[in-house]
Amino acid sequence: MSVLSLQDGIIYGPIDSRRLGKSLGINLLPTGYKLCPFNCVYCHYGWTDKYWRRSGKENFPGVDEVKDALKRGLEYARECGLTIDYITFSGNGEPTTHPQFARMVEMVWVLRNGLCPSARIALLSNSALVGSGHIREAIGRVELPIMKLDVGSQGLLEKVNQPVRGTDFEEIVSGLAMIPNITVQALFLAGRVDNSTPRAVADWQGALERIKPKEVQIYTTDRPTAEGGIVAVSDERLEEIALQTAELLGVEVRVY
Question: Does the residue 2 lie in any domain?
Fold first, then answer.
């Protein structure tokens, strides 16, 4: 079974999401290749074709282009009577790498309020750029920021997420701790790379104690992965991690 194909446009869905109900996706990334600061071993889009760096030379869609595409998508959904629970920044890599991400957030607010006021705005982010103040400010404008943190140490970050050179785990944790009301999402895996061991989970929980998220979501892989030899974690182990984490943090921890 092969990995999933990249999104071939700016707007996709609405899709049925386990976490978000009916979600209309916004892809701010190029459509011809996967661009990301991470190269996660479990990614269902496969390996990263091109690591993101602050070059500003990538083929990102412009604000007006995204605005027009989203307007068409929302108008079509309204005409067809389609329910949209969330308008979600996601797509072919990391949404916050778009050089005008903050403007995109403000534009989506305006369109949402006018065309689909019952929908909320969500972000699925790998958290790679939260060390930047202007990125944190933009994320703070999103109603449901779901921020990835799969590991609790630099060593496992490099094994599981394989970030672009220079990515610092402590900077990610400190950045997440400065964004209020975030949901932290983690994927646990076993096999050649394993972040579900007692030590790995304890380190991850220690990072969460510093971040203080409002909610935690955990899951395991159920799709083809970029790396071979990746094994799903059992439901029993996920439930054990969830119970321990909820008791430690005093917040809801959901298993998906």
Answer: no
**Mean pLDDT (whole number) for 99-124:** 97
- Say how far apart CA 109 and CA 104 lie, in whole Å: 9
Distance CA 164, CA 168 (A): 10
Arithmetic mean of pLDDT, 16-43: 94
Any idea how long the chain is? 256
What Cα–Cα distance (Å) separates residue 94 from each residue in 101, 181, 196?
Answer: 11, 20, 24
- Indicate whether 34 belongs to any domain: yes
Query: Beta 120-125 vs 144-148: how paired, if at all?
Result: parallel
Q: Identify the pLDDT of residue 56.
A: 57
CATH number at residue 92: 3.20.20.70
4 within domain boundaries: no
Does residue 84 fall inside a structural domain?
Answer: yes
Identify the pLDDT of residue 113. Answer: 97
Q: Determine if the pTM surpasses 0.85.
A: yes
pLDDT at residue 55 tops 80 = no
Range of the domain at 174: 11-255
How many domains are contained in the chain? 1
For the residues of 177-237, what is the DSSP string, one character each?
A: HTSTTPEEEEEEEEESS---SHHHHHHHHHHHHHH--SEEEEEE--S--SSTTEEEPPHHH
Beta bridge partners of residue 252, listed in sequence order: 215
**What SS3 class is residue 166?**
coil
Task: Note the pLDDT of residue 6.
Answer: 82
